[in-house]
Amino acid sequence: MTTTNALDRAMADRHRWMVSLPTTPRGWTQLLALMVFGLWALQWSARGAQLSPTELANGLPQIVDFLSRTWPPDWRILDRLWAPALETIQIAVWGTLLGVVGAVPVSFLAARNLHGPRWLYQLTRQGLNVTRSVNELILALVFVSAVGLGPFPGVLALAVHGAGMLGKFFAEAIEEIDQGPLEALRATGARPLQVIVFGVLPQVVTAWIAVVLYRFEVNLRSATVLGMVGAGGLGFELVGSLKLFKYPETATCIIVITVMVVAADFVSSQLRRAIQDTGRH
After folding, report:
1. Nearest Cα to 166, choosing from 139, 200, 197, 204?
2. 0.85 exceeded by the pTM?
C-alpha cells in the first residue's frame, strides 16, 4: 500500500511538472530565453568569481602539504584549550540571549498584521535589514576598538547581529499566525499588550524557541571565528598557532571546534524535535 501511494505521488508530481511546461510557441520561446539568460548569468558570475579548476588542481599539492604538517594533532595542548572552549560557549550563550532580548520587542513592531503605524513598520524592517547586513566579524572589530580585547566584544557582536536576524524570523512567525484569536480579543476590548500576551505569544512561542536554538548553533560557530580578531575563545588559540606555524596545535584546535559544533547541533536538534512534538500534542 505504501509503495502504491509513493508511485501515485510520483506520477502526480510528474503530471504537475508536465502541466507547468509551456504549451504555445510563445511560451517555449520565453522559457528558452530564460534558460539562455540563466546560463549567461552563471558564466558571468563564474568569470567575476575567477573560478578556475586548473588553479585548484595546481593548488592541491599545497593543500596536501599543509594537511601533512598538521598530522598528528598535538593532544598535549588539550588541557590548555578547556578554558577557551568554555569561553566560546559562554560567548555564544550570552550573544544569543542578548540577541533574543533585543529581537522580541522589535519583532512586534516589524509584524504587518499587528496594525501598527505603517511608517513605524517600514522603519523597523529597514533597521533589521541594516543590522543583519553587517557581518559579525566587522561588528567584532568595532566593539574590540570600543571595549578592548576579550570575549565581551564577541558577545556584543553576536547580540547585535542576532537581534537583526531573530527580529526578522520572529516578525515573520507573527505574520503567519491565525488572526481569529486576535480579532476575538480586540472585540472584547483587550488592550494591545493583552492581545500580544494572550493572542500572539501562545501561537509563536514554539517556532520562536526552535529559531533561538538554531541561532545558538550559528553563534557557536561564529564565536570560534570571532576570536581571530581578538574577541576571545578558541579562535584566538587557532590564530595564534597558525601565526607560530604550530600546525599540529592548529589541527587540535580544529578538532575541538568540530566536536563542539557537532555536539551542539545534536543537542539542539533533539530539543527542537521535542518542542515540535510537544506543540503537535
Report:
1. 204
2. no
Cα(275)–Cα(231) distance, integer angstroms: 33
Are 211 and 263 contacting, i.e. CB atoms less than 8 angstroms apart? no
Contact 139, 161 (CB under 8 A): yes
As a whole number of angstroms, the longest Cα–Cα distance in the chain is 73
**If you search the block for the grid coordinates 574577541, which residue do you land on?**
231
Q: What is the pLDDT of residues 47-88, one digit of tens each?
A: 887 777 777 777 788 777 777 777 887 777 778 878 888 888
pLDDT digits (tens, 9 = 90+) for 176-188: 777 777 778 777 7
Is 95 exposed, middle or buried, given 0-12, 13-18 or 19+ CB atoms closer than 10 A? buried
C-alpha to C-alpha distances, 53 to 58, 62, 63, 210, 242, nearest whole angstrom: 9, 15, 15, 40, 27
Distance (Å, whole) CA 211 – CA 176: 15
